[in-house]
User: Fold this.
Amino acid sequence: MSDVLPRSADVVIVGGGIVGTAVARQLAYDGLSTVLLEGQAFGGAVSGASLACLGTHMHNLQELDVLVEACAHWRELSESLGDPFEYNHSGQLRFIMREEDVAVARRWIDAERAHGLPPELLSPEAVREREPLLTGPIVAASWSPGDATVNPFLAVRALLADGRRHGVSAFHSTPVTGLTIQGDRVTGVQTAKGPIAVGKIVIAAGPWSAGLAAMAGVNVPIVPRQAQCLASVRQPPIIRTVVGACESAGGVESGYTQIQQARSGQVLFNTVVAPEGTTPGAENRINEVPLRFVRDSIQTLTTLFPSLADILMLRSWVRFEGVTPDDRFLAGKLPPEGLYIAAGDNGTGFCRAPYLGRLISRLVRGVAAAPSDALYDPARFAGVSA
Amino acid sequence: MKAALLSCDVLVVGAGPAGLAAAAAARECGADVICVDLFTQAGGQYSMRPVVAGGPFDHSLQVADGRTAEARCRELGVRFLFDTEIFWAEPGFSVFARQGPDSVTIRASAMVVASGAMERAIPFNGWTLPGVITAGAAQRLIKANRASPGKNVVLAGTGPFLLAVADTFAKAGKHLRAYVEMQRPALSLFSPFLHHPARFGEAVGLLQSLRRTRPAIHMGHMVTEALGDGRLEAVRVAAIGRNGLPEKDKSFLIENIDSLCIGYGFRPVIDITSLLHAAHHFDSSLGGWYCAADPATQQTDVPRLYAAGETTGIGGSVPARLSGRLAGLDAARAVGNTVSVPSMDGTRRALARARDFAASLAKLFPFPGHLIERLSPEEKVCRCEDVSRAQVEAAVGEGAADLFSVKMWTRAGMGPCQGRICGSALGDLVAGRLGIAAEAAGYNRPHMPLRPVPLNIAEAALALAGEPKESTGTPA
Amino acid sequence: MSRFVKVLVNGEIVMAQAGVSLGSVLHGRSPALRHSPVELQPRGLYCGMGVCFECLVMVDGRPERACITPVREGMAVEVQP
Assistant:
């Protein structure tokens, strides 16, 4: 990999996570000279710490078309690139612990079925046919057979490698220190390794995106939120599906759990326990996992899967999500002219990355928008209009 | 499973020479002391005790030292917890551990970390074959367990510890097929004794022991490859040229062997001090990253957190004991006991001298980190996850920016040893490819848990994080 | 006088001196204890001090590091020779 930045490009993408990598790859496929700048390590922050579930179940109903397209796109990527990122068509179970949440699950299932998707409600016995070790005290679970997982590290690596094959110039350890604006247009970026003259810049820096937009004098409503993950030592195959918490009457604010087994054999579990908001700037520090979270997570896992009580825990880590006020990405134009954003994963954004690549490419090239693109327009928030 | 909650004034981590000295010193001054160790008995690596009586080590000097130190601790009322592995610590201090099949949570006002050292491994071709063990493992097999690494043994690597292992073989009446040391014989090897003549007798004794094992002695040589089908059968040995690398045309096989015991020295175990945010520095002659401590008190830059022995840089048992004593005395003072200053001054002077001797010895046996460049592309760097050198280099070629990225993309360092075995070599390899200094390639920051721990034990220990006083019971 | 205990290794009775590490007993029997997870290469005791996990074997149904586990009367050990 060359260490010398090009002096100019058609587009510069700031942020080398899954979104930035997917955007860069798409732009290169669409013929633009594209530079991808990552401040630290590709996929090293939000993307690498995520559990990368691809699915349509219990997300925003308005986004169902997008999610269906994105899921299909991931499947195609896995096939066309030769399974480089452990695509696992596992299906997803959302467990229900309280009778009153069954009605919530039914509402989701009915709405998704009305859209032509196949989720269904399973009894505890039917759940155990799919997930034999899930013997904990659940009252039911929803089942979404189309959902899948990928290895988030390898997904970034594969999209990066494929993007580079198609002309993306990518640079790690290259933080952007400023945006150059002349009149009402962006004209360049400044980096720790020198400037690049460029008329189009895409901010894809997850929870750090607000800071970058501020360099252009734009306030975007993205704040960090802390989530945590645990991983076990490699186990024989014991968990087949993605096991998540049902969105209960309390919404995700009541806590979110996701449990799955990676192809490596590690059991992974992820919980958001501090949704009340994380101090701005926290994403810049290396945070330790709160003890209460580890204890609660183990309790959740072993309540659902009692036979896993004595497996070895290997590691825990903290990750940050970029949260927007309405749980949807900001993807589209920002003022000034030539500035774009694709950020605001809200903790479940991995799946949408290829769609956002196409969306940004449509905007950058000035071709007709797809009907769903408007869902993500940053202009939906007052004060953020292009 | 039981869950115990204990509290004390001073918690000492490690029951080797440094830990035992610290525990006794703190207790002498009146502090209430708990001392924990991973193994089932005290002694650490140096004073490792035979678990079966009646062998040649029962009355060795090292074992006697350890027994005396432990007996002194017991007489003073130090509480010992063995088979205890700490998996997390919080400032202030709360420590969470597995003790046998149970959990234990310990509150302490001060902590002395004397967690010792571990092998500083260099991956080489064939190093994963069964029968290839570390020099430290060989010593433990013979000394503690009265077992044998094998019938036909090659001892190889570099450094004074190899002689200590040869001494162990000699005392057990075992022979060595070959002794392979990277350094050439030279008068300079005796230079440390010019300023420390009292230590000369030790060295002579070790050399006599080596002769008693009747090995073929290959100085200025190294093992370049371990060979065998499913288990070790032979090693290739080569002379080392002027450039510090083995010379291909001056190599030969040693065949019909079943054990290679190999050691290139040790590195400090710093996971607890790192976790508690003490300052650490890098010095290859001290084993790489070590915990920085005030030489007058052994206190780290975190108040009431002390480090002693190998944790503060590899130096052997003498500085370990002395630094342990200083740490124990000052920790006792820090928690409100009276300590007489003269006793500390003498110890400080002796410690400075012992460190000086260790440093002069370390200079004679520099760590050959560059040997990682000799590893074949297909050979494993990370044993846990079967990650080869070629895979590591491919990741760097595709844009991995540091050790962390290499780990994400290859799983190197993601297995149960948590990168402890391969981390140092991996750092050298990645740094070499990126053209940066090894210490800049990334510092493996500790995460919960420090060591793999059963989920139920972790849960039980952590459940007592907020409990006010001591208890033992079954978790709800 | 040392006491002996009976250990079952893959169902076969092995006598060992009480208190010694399971790792020392297994290593003496055969240095290959398990297979590596990806390439299924034979592996055995390596660091001998609880760090490397290469001697991880199933003891009474649980994974244990043989090098830091003392033998106990009647313990059932599974190795992958």
Q: What stands out?
A: The first helix of chain A runs from residue 18 to 29. The domain at 8-47+153-222+326-380 of chain A is CATH 3.50.50.60 (FAD/NAD(P)-binding domain). Chain A is about 25% helix and 25% strand.
